[in-house]
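Fig. S4 source data, part A: sequence.
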Amino acid sequence: MVRNGLLALLLRGPMHGYRLRAEFEASTGTTWPLNIGQVYTTLARLERDGLVAPLGEADAEGRVMYELTAAGREEVGRWFATPVERQSRPRDELSIKLAMALMTEGVDVHAVLQAQRTATLRSLQELTRLKAGADEVTDAAWLLVLEAMIFQAEAEVRWLDHCESRVSALPARHATPAPAADHEEVPS
């Protein structure tokens, strides 16, 4: 993602690493902060792969401007034209946490669900507050990211409601003893 994001930013024109970092963070509403070392490491890989090239010598502050090569323009064009693949199975921490809670004796799954719902609703309120304070024109890129986060939070709340219904419909769990470890008897 960072790799393609930097290539996309260089479509605007040549930039040095610090400017790329600032533009990346501004474009994502600082939801994805970058370490400057990550930017320059990525630029070095992009240069190695022939997708960017340094533009002249370093300036007085030691910063090198980079520009896209023809191959870099083709690469970023492919990225924009290719849909993002979603994983076919959930591998996020919340899904795993709920699955483990459901299968672990003594864990109150309803309490786990309620704690997550409360946290997600708080997050949704904060995101909605941020959206209300954003400017439709000057914050357009940030609003796209923010609205994606809002829709994801809303979807999570709906999913948590679904989980609550599904868990409530299950028969009460009964204590089941842990399986005994298999031990070979050693003849004496």
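Fig. S4 source data, part B ends here. The two ends are 63 Å apart (CA to CA).
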